[in-house]
Write a structure and sequence with these properties.
Layout lengths: L4 E6 L20 H16 L6 E6 L24 H11 L9 E7 L8 E3 L4 E9 L7 E8 L21 E3 L4 E5 L5 E10 L5 E10 L1
Parallel strand pairs: 1-2, 4-10
Antiparallel strand pairs: 3-5, 5-8, 6-9, 7-8, 9-10
């Protein structure tokens, strides 16, 4: 268009726009994939048109549950900032922060990635592996969480409940490796991993899986 415009909301790819597993669970990009998407959006749609754009609103400077607790959140519920916040500082000031957030390169469960539609047998043990690095060389610590898949059907950002935490099924190591005991009850679940750098920053990823 050849007239002034505002981008009233921009951010990660929506849960209705992504690839899904064979049972229909949306595959959430990692925190690093989202950060790259924020940067691309800004450079190609906003910065490239500074003769016409009059402003923009990045979504979301905060934390909320929408399909997952992390999908649209630049911050985690505990206040940790993610790589998307690094990007915001860069596009607003022209300089990266002095200490960068951990970068999440991958998450595997039973040797498979999310797009491979991971299916597990109830009561069996499986290996999980998170692949994360810290740009500053900070030592990383990891938090694993297991939750049922959200059955929310809200639209437009209406409030959703966070699915309850399932405890006692993960035996985690200090190096991003864990052993996961598949729940005894058949159904859809999601495994979450968060990597912390000890400086208030975190990287995250999750993988949906089906027990049957």
């Amino acid at each position: 268009i050849d007239r002034p415009y505002m981008v009233t909301e921009w951010g990660p790819v929506g849960h209705w726009e992504v690839d899904k597993t064979s049972w229909g669970a949306p595959i959430e990009p990692s925190s690093s994939d989202k950060a790259a998407h924020y940067l691309k959006n800004f450079q190609e749609v906003i910065a490239a048109n500074d003769d016409r754009i009059i402003g923009s609103n990045a979504f979301l400077w905060g934390q909320k549950q929408e399909r997952t607790p992390t999908w649209y959140s630049m911050f985690l519920a505990d206040g940790s900032s993610t790589e998307a916040v690094d990007v915001m500082e860069y596009v607003w000031t022209g300089a990266w922060p002095a200490n960068r957030s951990p970068q999440m390169e991958g998450l595997l469960l039973d040797g498979k990635a999310a797009h491979e539609s991971v299916e597990l047998s109830p009561g069996e043990r499986y290996r999980a592996r998170a692949i994360a690095v810290d740009p500053d060389g900070d030592p990383l610590t990891y938090r694993w969480e297991l939750r049922p898949e959200s059955d929310a059907t809200q639209v437009g950002g209406d409030r959703e409940e966070v699915p309850e935490l399932i405890t006692g099924l993960i035996d985690a190591a200090d190096d991003g490796m864990a052993t996961v005991l598949a729940p005894a009850q058949a159904g859809a679940y999601r495994l979450f991993i968060t990597a912390y750098d000890g400086n208030g920053h975190a990287g995250h990823a999750n993988i949906p899986f089906l027990v049957q």
